[in-house]
Design brief:
3-stranded antiparallel sheet, metal-binding, elongated, Ssirtuin_cat_dom, binds zinc ion, Rossmann fold, 6-stranded parallel sheet, 2 domains, transferase, SIR2/SIRT2 'Small Domain', alpha/beta, NAD
Length: 257
Amino acid sequence: MTATSRPADVASLLSGADSITVLTGAGVSTDSGIPDFRGPQGVWTKDPGAAALFDFDTYMADVNVRRRVWQMRRENPAWQARPNAAHQALADLDAAGRLRALITQNIDGLHQAAGAAEDRVLEVHGTIKRVACMECGARTPTPRVLERLEEESDPRCLACGGIQKTDTVSFGQRLDPRVLDAAVEAAAEGEVFLTAGTSLGVHPVAGLCDVALDNGASLVIVNAEPTPYDGRAEAVLRDPISEVVPKLAEYALGAQA
Ligand SMILES: [Zn+2]
């Protein structure tokens, strides 16, 4: 058992850090109404069949899978979701020049919607906001493709006729090496590595904690469930993310503990 901490325990650590690198996962967006797919109550945990729909080879091979997935994309809660207090607090930290990078496993674009700078957000699992052609690489804003679902069930690339997919990383697809390299660099350079709402169970992203620790960063973990890195963290906070992250941001911005 790792002892859990209170936000005030890391107040001086955060206020003294010139650069903070943040890694966020699904838990940051659940308060915005976006379900956690992989967590204990996750959609894919409870229905492994749903996960199969996001296997890259199946998607490319089967038009019926693509038709079903396009409908799911249209109904994705990300289109209605608004940033919550945690997204806002991290955007405030960015505006104050305190973030080295905001690495996220989320595909919902809510960090940018809260005002975080586009080039500070590293979307290691891609984004639902953009569609990519698997043939020619053309990128299109997703809403423009979703509009076509009125007439078509598997909208193809308008330039080349290729199969299209949201610009997210499916099972069986590699992470974008440029984004991953930038995340590794940011993990190495931050004085504090703050993770929020991720179980740190999926590599290579979880390995960013090792990169940070190996480079002397202090690790702060905010997550409801235990993670494999709790024992090496300076502090582990289990309270609700949309309450804890704003408190941590306040301390980082100089509020007294
Ligand atoms: Zn194309």
